[in-house]
Design brief:
Number of helices: 16
Helix content: 25-40%
CATH topology of the largest domain: Aspartate Aminotransferase, domain 2
CATH superfamily of the largest domain: Type I PLP-dependent aspartate aminotransferase-like (Major domain)
CATH architecture of the largest domain: 3-Layer(aba) Sandwich
Strand order of the largest sheet: 2-8-7-6-5-3-4
Distance between the termini: 62 Å
Structural class: alpha/beta
Radius of gyration: 21 Å
Length: 389
């Protein structure tokens, strides 16, 4: 019998291998310092490992409740109320997820129907648009202001239509490292107030904001919190990105819809890590001290970059540093961002990510992104190579 492979019509025709995979593979091939992908190259607190080990040894190895271990949801509720002043009910308004990316997809699948529009602010994290398309929705890109990456509320307002179902906001912002201000949050609250538009607030870098800036959660603004899925990440906060554990806070009616999808795309999240995280959260110091920890790495990295011809953009939050390459004294500065990053990896020995990868149309503004969530010796090794520029 002749084999026949059925033809497939892709649901994501614009999606191929991500730039992160491409650049990490090239970095490995060339022996480059990888400042491309956004994850630490250092270990988490041994006490967190021990807390998870203890949970395993106590027998917490079977399915937990679908929304998450109660102790962890209670710890999240206590943290959010202490930091942002809103009381979420652990039983009905907090769900533990298999990372923030799953949380965002689940929120979109829960509320976006075929033909619904979802506003995304570009540049944006690369999962947003494919998630919207998987739900049958239409992504409506609105550019952040080039150069400053501040929200343009006139353009956001103009993008709102009767078909708009949701808007996705990310602060601290990946990739630009900007942080929304109180005025920004109040303006968003104002323009959404007369609408039925939902908010997906991606706050995974909430504990990486540097003075004088501060993280302003949508939870702190009643008009936003009432319509928001607020997404956070234990992986980012505790240096355990491979664990893939996140959380979503939302009003009870929205959480009920979220959980309808959550129970069928992951059902629940690994049990011992939930118990370990709940125990570890009893001490708030690890996340309260995180800004100082990352600010020191940011300052070390920026001081080294100032010896080059890169033009440094502000890094107000997250663990990213964007630089303008247009003043470099090398002919390769005239390459498209993606080709420049390949040259930088191959010839200089440092991997970065082009900002054009975060735009649907590949908008190129001669800006690239480094990640400084690395050991100090890793950053110094990269800087010693970049000083050639």
């Amino acid at each position: 019998m002749t084999e026949h492979t059925p033809s497939l019509q892709t649901k994501l025709p614009k999606v191929g291998t991500t730039i992160f995979t491409v650049m990490s593979a090239l970095a490995a091939e060339k022996g480059a310092v990888n400042l491309g992908q956004g994850f630490p190259d250092f270990d988490c607190d041994p006490r967190l490992i021990q807390a998870v080990t203890d949970a395993m040894q106590r027998g917490h190895n079977q399915y937990p409740p679908m929304p998450g271990v109660p102790a962890l949801r209670e710890a999240v509720a206590a943290k959010v109320q202490a930091l942002y002043g809103r009381a979420y009910q652990p039983a009905t308004e907090i769900t533990i997820t298999a990372g923030a990316t799953q949380a965002i997809l689940t929120a979109i699948l829960a509320v976006v129907r075929a033909g619904d529009e979802v506003i995304v602010l570009e540049p944006c994290y690369d999962s947003y648009v494919p998630n919207i398309e998987l739900a049958g929705g239409v992504a409506v890109p609105v550019p952040l202001t080039p150069g400053t990456f501040r929200p343009d509320f006139d353009k956001i307002t103009a993008a709102l239509t009767p078909r708009t179902r949701a808007i996705i906001v990310n602060s601290p912002h990946n990739p630009s490292a900007t942080v929304w201000t109180d005025a920004d949050m109040r303006k968003l609250q104002e323009i959404l107030a007369p609408t039925e538009v939902l908010l997906i607030s991606d706050e995974v870098y909430e504990h990486m904001v540097y003075a004088p800036n501060q993280h302003l959660s949508a939870a702190s603004y009643p008009g936003l919190a009432a319509r928001a899925f607020i997404v956070s990440s234990f992986g980012k906060t505790y240096h355990v990105t491979g664990w893939k554990v996140g959380t979503v806070c939302a009003p009870a009616a929205m959480t009920a819809e979220f959980r309808k999808v959550h129970q069928f795309n992951v059902f629940t999240v690994n049990t011992p890590m939930q118990h370990g995280l709940a125990a570890y959260m009893a001490d708030p110091a690890p996340y309260l001290e995180l800004p100082a920890f990352y600010a020191a790495k940011r300052d070390l990295f920026r001081a080294g970059l100032e010896k080059t011809r890169f033009r440094l953009l502000p890094s107000e939050g997250s663990y990213f540093q964007c630089v303008d390459i247009s003043a470099l004294a090398v002919p390769e500065r005239d390459l498209p961002e993606a080709e420049f990053c390949q040259w930088l990896t191959s010839e200089i020995g440092v991997a970065a990510i082009p900002l054009s990868a975060f735009y649907g149309d590949g908008f190129d503004q001669k800006v690239i992104r480094f990640c400084y969530a690395k050991k100090d010796e890793t950053l110094r090794a990269a800087l010693s190579r970049l000083e050639r520029l």
